[in-house]
Amino acid sequence: MLDQTCYLSFERTVKKPMTSDSRPRSVAIADFNRDNRLDIVTANSGKDNIMILFQNTNGIFVNETIYSTNIGSNPYSIAVANLNNDQFTDIIVANYGTNNIGLVFGKENGIFHEQITLSTGNSRPLFLTVNDLNNDNKQDIVVVHYGTNSIGIFFGHGNGTFQKEVFYTTGYDSIPYSLVIADFNHDKYLDIGVANYGTNEIMIFFLVMSMVVLLIQQDIQQISIHIRVQLVQAILIMIILRISLLLILVQIA
Ligand SMILES: [Ca+2]
Ligand SMILES: [Ca+2]
Ligand SMILES: [Ca+2]
Ligand SMILES: [Ca+2]
Question: Which among 65, 36, 45 has a CA at the least distance from the CA of 53?
Fold first, then answer.
């Protein structure tokens, strides 16, 4: 019988020195110049910029290019996605210091436009991720607001523009730090799990029929009970919506 155990072995590459005091806080990967080799982008909180490192044929990261996220921006979190459905990957960055989300659109292979921004008020955006939450094949940006104890969603139009941010509170003193997106209850709608540093809890927002429904979840082992309660609520909402629609139709008729 064959031994099917896999053994992983990692070899450290040559250390890539970054600019001193760059204070990288977040990293993402994509093939920005479309040469079939993954490249790296970092959010340099100490230098108020993002830096792209392109991987060469030897697996070494070279030719760094820098794009400013503006003075005092303190970029803390970074993600990559194609926001406007062209052939170029775009970069999305949470600018903690200037309370906005920076959008850096790809212009041609490995070259980007200057950053444009979406304001998040005075919320201190600490973390972000990108996904299609409402299943319309248009990427949405989900942000953790450290300063206002909330998360926010910018629903995308698919052309690089976004709806006004929608906020959902994570509770008094919750101090959210991070989030993850997955379909926790297997209902084909993506859900959001938030790490609340201040209140020592994981909070899950279940998405139901394109509406975000809140669930506070303090004991991981009780999750299945909460999901059942949530599903009953979702079914009730659907019934109420259908009855309302029927009443409106009857009145029109
Ligand atoms: Ca590349
Ligand atoms: Ca793009
Ligand atoms: Ca979407
Ligand atoms: Ca779900």
Answer: 65
Distances (CA, A) of 97 to 12, 122, 125, 142, 164: 33, 10, 8, 18, 20
Is the whole model's pTM more than 0.70, yes or no?
A: yes
| Residue indicated by tokens 């009145």 | 251
Q: Residue 24 above 60 pLDDT? A: yes
As given in the structure block, the two tokens for residue 111 are 């070259």
173: left (phi over 0), alpha (psi -120 to 50) or beta: left
DSSP summary character for residue 170: -
Question: Over pLDDT 70: what percentage of the chain?
Answer: 79
The residue whose two tokens read 């993002």 is: 50
- CA distances 211 to 133, 153, 189, 202, Å, are 10, 12, 10, 20
Q: Terminal CA-to-CA distance of the chain, rounded, Å?
A: 73
Q: Which residue shows structure tokens 């990288």?
A: 24
What is the 155 CA–ligand 4 centroid distance (Å)?
18
Rounded CA-CA distance 150/165 in Å is 12
What's 135's DSSP letter? Answer: S
Q: How far apart are CA 37 and CA 12, in angstroms?
A: 18
Distance CA 155, CA 174 (A): 24
CA of 156 from ligand 3 middle (Å) equals: 6
Q: What is the pLDDT of residue 206?
A: 86
Pair of tokens at residue 178: 């991070």
Give 88 Cα–ligand 2 centroid separation in angstroms.
Answer: 4
**pLDDT 10s digits, 165-196:** 999 999 999 999 999 999 998 988 899 999 99
